[in-house]
## 1
Amino acid sequence: MLKKFLLPILLLHCVFTFGQIEFEFGELSIFESDFKTYEKDTTANAVFLYEKGENYFEVRNGYIMLITKYHAKKKIINKNGFDHADIEIPYYHSDRSTEEVSKIRAITHNNGVKSSLDQSNIFDEDINEHWSQKKFTFPNVQEGSVLEYSYEIQSPYLYNLKGWYFQDDIPKIYTEYNAKIPANYRYNRSLKGELNLDVNEATVRERCFRLPSRPNQSSHCEVLKYVMEHVPAFKDDEEYMLGATNYRSKLEFELSEKLGFDGINTKYTKTWRDVDRQLRGDKDVGGQLRKKNYFERNIPLDLFTQSEDKLTKAKNIYRFVQSYYTWNEKFGVLWENRVKQAFDERTGNVAEINITLINLLNAADLDADAMLVSTREHGLPKKSHPVMTDFNYLIAKVDIDGTSYLLDATEKNLNFGMLPYRCLNYYGRVMDLDDGSYWFDIEPEKSNVRSVRLQMELDFESGSGSGVFDEISTGYEAYFKRNYLATMTEEEYLDKFDESTINDFYVEDFQVDEEKSNENQLVEHYEFTLENVGNGSTVLVNPFAIRYFKKNPFQSENRYYPVDFGYVRTFQYYASINIPEGYKIKEIPNPMNVGLPDNSGVLRFNCNESQGKVMVQFSLHLKYTQYTSEGYAYVKKFFENAVTAQNNSYVVFEKI
Amino acid sequence: MRFFALTFFIFFSNFFHAQYSVKSIPENLLTGADAVLRKHTMDVVVLAQDKMEIRYHRVVTVLNEDGDDKVDAYAYYEKNDKISTLEAIVYNANGNEIKKFKKKDFLDQSAISGGTLYSDSRVMFLNYTPIQYPYTIEFIQEYTTPNTAFTPTWPFLDDYNVSTELSEFDFRADERIQFRYQEQNFDGYQISSSSTSNELHYKAKNIEAIKSEPMSPSFRDFAPHVKVGLNKFHLEGVDGAASNWNELGQWIYDQLIIGRDKLDPNTIIKVQNLVKGVEDDYEKTRLIYEYVQANTRYINVKLGIGGWMPMSAEEVDRVKYGDCKGLTNYTKALLSAVGVNSYYTVVYGDEQIRSLDNDFASMQGNHVFLNVPINGEDIWLECTSQTVPMNHLGTFTDNRYVLKITPEGGQLVKTRESLDEGNYQKTTGEYTVNSDQSIKGKAVIVSSGTQYDQKYWLKDQPKKEQEDFYKRYFGYINNLTLEEVSFQNNKNEVEFVENVSIKAGNYLSSANDQLILILNVFNRNLRVPSKVRNRQKDVVISRGYLDEDEYLIHLPEGFEPEELMKPKRIDNKFGTYEVALEKVDSNTLRYKRKLLVKSGNYPKEDYEKYRDFRKKVVRGDNTKILLNKKNKT
């Protein structure tokens, strides 16, 4: 049954393959030269008509080289697409060897007229210590030009076989990737993103690769061909999203094993057990993680002796490392860390700071391990097999009396047990060097609340108002607020605060309530005045002196990937507003009670009159961290309701 | 004796280290400062027309995070510059050294800015993570350059929110070398100076920080600085001589422009055909300008003297791209091929109006555009844009002194000023209020002058960008749906027309039987400049504008206004604001609005008054009326 089903598809592919006739460089197919606009995406400024990449291995000057060949044709649809005429080809180099970019050719096709790139207009630019790039722009670019270019990269770094991006920021009509990989190199491969391959072929070619030094030995090759057609542009300019790399269509390779002709096999990664074994034997990694003696000698002794309680001890150590270091804004995983040097200079990357923390926790006889994670930007690590480049960040995991705490000491205002927002990426791998590594879920703090409790006195004689409010923040909301407050002086904060509120609202006094604030919450106390409230026989007052959302954060009509908030959150606003003497309530806003599907979010708004006051209750509660793209319309509508409730509600007062 | 030497050494080293302790900063230099320039000195020696030695010493105490970028430990250099010394030392708050950077510890990178494909300018810089505040960084740079065309301008104040403890500037030139100098904004500052025919020396101490305020004059208009220029100079292999704008313009013409306008004969024939039968120079210019706009794009490549010399017209013609110099020179060449004279013109292109220094000629400006005199009128062409209409200056080049390069030398001329009433927007619209609290309406918005600048580019934007624009423009309307937009760009009249239809659910609020309607749907101006406690600087409104609005409002069946809004009129030195509402028939209202903001300079005391004016405008634009059900009354 299955076979019967497969056959027609294969046939189709054959037909298709014949349809895509190979063209020489510099020639356009009829389709390409006649192409005008892309109906599937009329917003596109430029489109890849054709793109083909190829990787294979070749012995050059006695060395095995990884060769990349690239050939592309882009249609420039309008002037906004001119940026796509600027081409950058990055290449890597180290002290000993370098990748080489060569055979750059570029032609601009304008209605059959060809303009070639002059080789003297190709520039070579250093980006940083290890990366440079070739750079050029196409000559004679017009609206409607087809830009064709090709180049070759020769690389001595066999692990640089990275795969292929099927999706880019402009649509691709046809994109093809080929690889010819000798059987003695094994690469893990995985397809990311939502899109499917239109061609997925793997065949074996016998005796295709041999070393000149061993002419009698040869290996066969795996010949791969992958094609996607009509790949939509990838847009990632939306609020609240997880790393774009999770959703952009890409084929990923990672070198897993090399079987040498000399009979020596090198495994790069295969199973987590291999990784664990390798790390255990790795002097550098093990050495960095087992420096507890060094730190014992160099830190205040009372850090260990202050308290007998394990949790208190852990918290003291965490706070010490947090305040001791200034983070240099760089990440880092297990390798290339210089913990001692970082400690001496009081600055280091994420890994160095957190390895210090792990060492100190272990020195205090607590059970701490390094946990590898990937930041939200970097994407979710693959669970199927170890891909070390999936990880870009290292945190500490400590177990105390049966509870696990995940720690990152890089951020000054972070509470014990909380991770920075960038780390809220669902799971990571704990590198327990003794008992073996394991996956561990990142569970963000559950109580993240911003709550405003406000009392307001209105005076319609003078058309003014005044009052007080407390703002209580917990969890990540408190953390973000502390960070925000730390970046500016009180005066700047108040100026910004006044600007962010409705007109004629002025904060007269502001204090962080130190007594009520603690590790778990931040309490701010404000006194305010309100001008130009209005007077006359009818006065309209919006009961929201403080508003959480001025605009709906979700403006796009559609969304092609999930909405990800990182942590669950709640916003509350409770107000009590007096009814001025000589006035009565004429109208109050209608109540609102809206939910998200599966009870994953609740929005409530209610006003009522009670004992000479208007009581306002508003709360917005998001119970999931992630909402699928199918549920986007609901989320958008939900926020629309929240914004409407805050901006369009009026209490109408009337003179008696 | 030995004992004595030892104590002296200890004393001296302590003294030395403590010199950058934060405690020793005078109290008045800390107020309003993110950073303090502890010591800022430069020693310039001009040895020859093509050899200048510079010793630069900058010690900055950074008081908080905002001050981090005032460290400014950047060494920009060109290919022929030689940096002999580059080092930095970091001190903690007590003035003790905590880290030292040698030349090799600096990162070396290409100094590429936006829009540049490639540049051979480079920069060496420090990558230091501060570990505590305050901290101090001492930066020392010594280098030699052949490019004496750029003699330094010395600022005694660095920037807003930075104070200066000590600033010294020394300039010496070989006896054979003549130079000019000019002191600016020295009033109110104690700057001591001495000079001889070949030496200058300036010294200033304890200058307090200036706070940045909205709508203030530009920093360089009040900050004290001294400028120096050589009468004979050198630039990337080319010698030059100039002591006034005329001579400088002559040099630019003779060395950088002349002969760069040769064109391929085919191209000449092509453009001559393009204007065949056209006699009028204005019309010819329009055709050529449109040809350039349609066929070229902006790409900057900067190599050596190419940073100042335009790419040849022939080359631009071949690759169809260039930077401002290349494209301007190319347009000039094409115009000359059809018999129209034009002039390459140097300008400071900036939203903030900035003139070339009237009375101090030196290499200035950051942009080049084209001047075409036709029948005694100056026509201006912005050759880097594919969309700007002919002779439209916009906010980038309006109302400032620019240098016209003619074969007879340079000429400083002033570009046109845009008049307040000329920056005009007229919105005519109507909308229907539905009883389900939604509205639906359309408007025609016609913009000219600087208001044209703010919008004309919309036409070529993708749909998504256009939607985003209106979601911002009508940002006060929640749940906005953009129904239809179309545009008309009347380039000849420099007039941009938008046809916009919108709808919005839940636009009105309800309170039981009443509906609350904010009248101004299409043009609410809700910007009030931020509050400034204790304003220091004058208030500048560099460009004014005029908005006029007129909307018909169709009320839902069965509703009528409780009362009509009373007309409002505010008239003061900043401008005029008027709103009025009138009844057209039982179901229709007419809303009229006018806002004129006048350009001008006002004393600092007026800032609050101006804010009050803008607050009143906000209040007026937010005016609500109540709609009652008719049967109720």
Note: Residues 1-20 of chain A have pLDDT under 50 and may be disordered.
## 2
Amino acid sequence: MSSALIIEQALNGLQFGIMLFLMAAGLTLIFGVMGVINLAHGSLYMVGAFACAAVAAYTGSFWLGLVASLIAAAAAGAIVEVTVIRRLYNRDHLDQVLATFALILIFSEGTRWVFGSFPLYLDIPKVLQGAISLPGGAQYQLYRLAIIGAGLVVAIGLYLLIAKTRLGMRIRAGESDREMIGALGVDIASLNTIVFALGAALAGLAGALVGALQSVQVGMGEPVLILAFVVIVIGGIGSIKGALAGAILVGVVDTMGRFVLPQLFTLFMEPSQAATAGAAVASMLIYIVMAFILAVRPKGLFAVNA
Amino acid sequence: MKTIAAALVAGLAFSAQAMAEPVKIGMITTLSGGGAGLGIDIRDGFLLAIKESGNKDIKVIVEDDAQKPELAVQIADKMVQSEKVDILTGIVWSNLAMAVVPGVVGQGTFYLSTNAGPSALAGEKCNPNYFNVAYQNDNLHEAMGNYANTANYKKTFILAPNYPAGTDALTGFKRFYKGALAGELYTKVGQTDYATEIAQIRASGADSVYFFLPGGMGIAFMKQYSQSGISTPVMGPGFSFDQDVLGAIGDAALGVKNSSHWSKDLDNAANKKYVAAFKAEYKRLPSLYATQGYDTANLILSAVAKASVKDKDAFRAALKEAKFDSVRGKFKFGNNNHPIQDIYVREVIKEDGVLTNKIVATSFTDHQDAYAANCKM
């Protein structure tokens, strides 16, 4: 096992974690401020990817597509909040799960109706194509480094927004006590819409960034959604810092597990059996980690109300 | 739920006996969810052949299984019990086929597979009422293993998802491949990020890569592989490089070798007519799934012209004869009612700005699956 391979895998873990953070940040904000479990968050991710692919195909520019993905996902988020989610704040979680699950079906079939069943094409912009050499003899895909950079910028931006601005103050206040800030004269309805649109825009951004790397197709959001839930449970629901830590933990553990476990199993199994058994255990690994963390810290690593 | 009745002018060429008996065909296929592209192609190819025949005694009922085995079983029960269909067809996925087919053929209804070819149904669980008009699951992988020898590859890195069709695929490849393996990996089903696997391919020193990653998984793998700076040649089965996914992979697919039992450029009259008709009807190029649907419908039409579907023995014999103009050129059934056919190696090219395939070699002539010997038929 060379150091180049280990560096490459560590970067892969980091990049995967950053991508999960973009999803989880919106999810945890929405849950923290409004107490809503939004299963349709994966659909907003899909909306971002489709908007980016469609605009990039029409204009020929990935960057315009990226802007479109933010606008489309934020708009979809705002519409969903005003028409559906707003009616659910005072209902129990089961009603929220039912309604947002219905939204997944509506978004999926709606997208299929507009774009058809076949995956769309979205390519990496010219300047970010190819791989670059890293110290230690490793080669790494430039676009993945760009995703890491973009994710870190978003993380810093979110920190500044929440810690330093008036809007951030209201968001933090909303997380602590919704009724009280309403009584103090803050327009809680529009705050909710803004937070929901912000979370949606982050999901849309993640969808567009990842869409260029993977495939833009109906149903692409749901597998990521499950991981994003794992991330916010590990990090502590409602905590942006927890989402970042949890996302990077999940990203690195999952990547390293997939890489190391099958090789570890070859020590006492024949190669083709080790490959299947290792892959099976690796896919369980993040859930094992989650169970362990919840056993030690039931409210997650950075619990908001701990 | 869609019910499509395909009916046109009466076919003059058919016998009075066949005309008197309407034939009811139930099609269960995947029309929603991530795998819908495959089912839609099968349906469109099938209905095109029925429409071309002008046979108005044939009624086709199409229902969506959403790629869920339990739903497919429900629909099959309904179609057999209350709709009283004579023939069932259309399933895309092997796990759904395994859930539906044994029950259906056990009740005496005919089942014609338009795609799935799990090994169990080709071997010990073969059934006289079950016909596979597509391929046995291992076939295309075997063809690529065979081709890897011809291409003089000595160190191939192989990967597939960790589920039965994935392990079968790599078993099929290894059955004919004579070189050494640079590595063997099983990925998560539905995985869309292959950075970890690509890093291992890079480190393994492989001289070629073979992968079986159907649908979105393959699109993601190819896009990421092409950006990784690795220049090791890639091979795959035709599913990963067919018309339904090529557009989404983009130029990253150019030059990739893949195996298929059909190609758009196969030189025979039936194929030329089919490709032109499909393009005219649906404004896109046909995929191999559409082709399997089209051949299945034409096989049924050929049997309907010979025997009444109510006379099970005569109809079964007529199906087994397979006297229809297959767009694959030649086509016949082996003892286990699975095809004996040629399998080609294709290369992805660009033609009039559209990515598509052309045949560059023939990997197998009259190839039969490895399980036929286990079938007591």
Note: The radius of gyration of chain B is 20 Å.
